[in-house]
Each structure stands twice: as structure tokens, then as C-alpha cells.
Description:
- By secondary structure, the protein is α/β, with parallel strands linked by helices.
- The chain has two domains: 5-235, 4-Layer Sandwich (Metallo-beta-lactamase, Chain A), CATH 3.60.15; 243-315, no CATH class.
- The protein is 40% helix and 19% strand.
- The chain has helices spanning 47-56, 74-77, 80-86, 99-103, 106-116, 118-125, 207-219, 236-256, 262-280, 287-315, and strands at 5-7, 12-16, 26-32, 35-39, 64-68, 91-94, 136-138, 144-147, 150-156, 165-169, 174-178, 224-227, 231-234.
- It has a seven-stranded mixed sheet, covered by helices on one side. Strands 8-9-10-11-12-13 form a six-stranded mixed sheet, with no helix packed on it.
- Strand 9 (150-156) and strand 10 (165-169) form a beta hairpin.
- Bound molecules: zinc ion (ZN).
- Zinc ion binds next to loops.
Amino acid sequence: MKLSYQDLGQGIFCIDTFYYRPNLDGCYLIQQGDEAALIDTGTSHVAPAVMELLDLRGIRPEQVKYVIPTHVHLDHAGGTGQLMALLPNAQMIIHPMGARHMNHPEKIIAGTIAVYGEEVFKERYGTILPVPEERTIEAEDGFEVSLAGRKLRCIHTLGHARHHFCVWDEQSRGLFTGDTFGISYRELDTDQGPFMFLPSTPIDFDPEAWHDSLNRLTHLNPTQLFLTHFCRVDQPALRAVALHEEIDDYVAIALNAGGEQREQQIREGLTHYYRDRLRQHGSQLSDVEIDEVLGMDIALCAQGLEVWLKRREKQQ
Length: 316
Ligand SMILES: [Zn+2]
């Protein structure tokens, strides 16, 4: 994989992991003094690009102190094992509910192969290495580490996944948001700014918890968001307002669907919803172009809402 990255200032760099396409999935490097950390790692294919950027920045592999996946979904954590093998002093920091999946990735690998098949899995995710238990730090809510004096704090955020945290970097007043602050692709930017949408990906979508998570994060008063999908977005408080609305709209779209083709109806509901929202946002993209950018995500979001409806029915 070739190296493509953006220098975002304050020692923060966003490396494109080329997952599916450029500008979709990022891996962040924070360089502070003679120490460094990585937040989210893309897939196993990312390691050469990361090592190249470390070299360019004059960082030796021994100086990388932490590798911090925000959660264990493979577009965020798939490359962690490979990187840990190349970074001899690094400790992995992970949500307590995600640790065993990183130490013993067999279950995630089998689950993903069941969905995509072995060939696609290999091509998309490569070889996933386990992270040794003795190099694993389980981060409780509020857990803090120091990168040459620069504090990084893990904030548990339910809503997208139960094993998700965000990382608060007080020095830059930036939040590394994983998937909690939604997804924003540059193809959907307009004069009105970035367009955000929620990944209600299977299997943990939780609308109430997601509202709470956004409130907790905005309470920190961040000035910038570092999204894994993709890169920096400003005006967090404004973005949160739109995402709160979206959570409620998702719930309404899911609850309005019914019958045997429920998931298909949700998918269609979301497709129309996003076309409308994008038009309101001033986007000139055609329906076909919107489907090209968002189609895969909408399918996953619909699956996640279907899983949520089923869970809800069981509880009633
Ligand atoms: Zn995720």
C-alpha cells in the first residue's frame, strides 16, 4: 500500500488506509516529543504505510508507545496485531469488552469470513495477528495515558458498539471519535460544509445510549473531530445537533417498516432519507452517484436497524 497522509497540525497525521477506496478509512498518528501513538489502525494492509510515515517523521519503531483501536470492528482494529509485531515497545489500549477479541481474533475472523467468504476476506483484511495479552491495557471509562506529557483520555461511548471508546486529546481540543460522531465522506461536502451520517452497523445500535454519548462528548467542548471515516471535521456542537436528529429519524424509519421484507424497506427508507438530506445540504450529486458513495453503508445501516428491531421485540 502506498503512503498517503495529511498533516493536520499539532502533531496529528491522518493516514489513508485505502479500505474500499481512498478517503474512506483513516489511521491516526500522534507525535509528541520523542513518543508517538496510533489511534485506529485500518486493516492488516496498513502496516507498511505506517512504518513509512514513522520513518519520514523521524520516529523509530521503539518510540511508539501506544496503539489504540477505538473498537474492534476490523476497519478500525484489523491492523493492530501486525503493527504490534513491528512496534516492540507499544502497548495496545482497548475497551475491556473488546480485549478478548484482540487477544483471540478467531471469532471475529470466522464471523467475517462467514459474511464475505475466504477470498474476499484475505484480499480486504489480510492476515489478522493476535495481540499478546501481556501487551494489552484494558481502558475503563476515563482512563488516561500520557504521551510525553500530552494526556489522552478514553471515554466509553455506547451507541455504535458496546466496545467503543473515543479518545480526548486536550492539547488539540480534538476528539478521536471512531464511529461515535458519525461518518463524513469528502465526496458529500458542499458549501454548507461536511455531511454527516450515523453508522448503525450490526449488532449494537442503541439510540438512547448514542444520544448520551454525543452529549458526553460535546460537554468536553471540543473544537475539532478526527473521524475514522474520514479525517478532520470542525464545529462539533453543530454536527452533534444533526446527528441527534438522525438518531431519532433512524428509529422512526425502522419502526415504520414491517412485514417480511422489513430490512429491504428500511434500506429503501434510508436511501430516500439520505437523498433528501443531501439535496437539502446543497449536494448536486445524482441518485446514482449518491448510491455509489453511500450504498454499502446504507445496506449495513439497514442490517443494523433490523438487528435492533429484533432485539427490541425479544425484550418486549
Ligand atoms: Zn464500527
